[in-house]
Amino acid sequence: MVGVVAYGSVSSIKALWETRIKKSKEEEQKRTARGGAPGRLSVGAWEDRAILARLKQKLQTEDGRLILRIEQEEWKALPGCLVQLSQVQEWQIHRTGLQKIPHFIPNFQNLLVLDLSRNSITEIPKQIGELTRLKELLLSYNRIQRVPEELGGCESLERLELSMNWDLSELPDQFRNLTRLQHLDLSLNCFSVLPDCIVALPALVWLDIGGNCLQHLPEDIHRMEKLHTLWLQRNELERLPDNISRMASLDTLVLSSNRLRDIPPLMEGMSNLRFVNFRDNPLILDVTLPPIERTTEDDEGEDDREMFGREFMQMYIQESRKRAFAALNMHRVNQTDEDS
User: Which controlled-vocabulary keywords does the entry list (predicted)?
Assistant: First the structure.
């Protein structure tokens, strides 16, 4: 009996140790799979701690806002440990070679400004639409080719900059859901038309779509009731719609370096237009502003007048109207001679 008892005790102890050894091996395998070493904190965990400490050094507080600022350092991808800094309200990450916006971006619900301009980003992730408090999204000078429809979910967005992304040529219809968007920069891209989803934006006051391939403007452009600044330089516009004269809030209109042949006569009544530029267009009429008397206190008067271009526009329309009347009168005279 004693031998039986002893054998039973040994068997129990053996089973217990086998269970412990098995559990220990499983834990070791898990650590190894994560890049760790037996009995120590994994290498991955140490790297995360080091990277997180490095990122914390990039934090700054300005005007009560917590900002993550990284300039001219190589960060092709942002690490997952960044989610531990979810209280950050603004990202300023420039010239880092960053290739994509991380898919864990929805973890940053406090984010108000996302400035990732001058990087190598090729796409905007669908998760961007979950940032419902985001006010500014700045992605100029990247390699973005398309805008996801989910961006329309950024209901608080007020400023969007997508300048110089080269292959960007269209926007999703859901873009019209950005009802608070005031400032939009699409310059230096490949747009051939002004998308209707832009014309439909109710709060838009500033638009730059210069340096694209626009060939015409929509006839209902006057729907942009609050727009006060419109940059259309370096496009392929050959004419302007008459309804541009109905844009009551338009204050600044830049049309330099297009293919315009004429100026709509109805624009003469645009008393709200303060700054306009028709320079470098093949206009039919050759109109020269009359010289002005300049004093030493007003030496720059000529330059200012040329830059604003408003007086030139008025003179052009008046000259165009005179020539039209002259042509009409000549036609009447010729008609009378033929009848007699």
Answer: Cytoplasm, Leucine-rich repeat, Muscle protein, Repeat
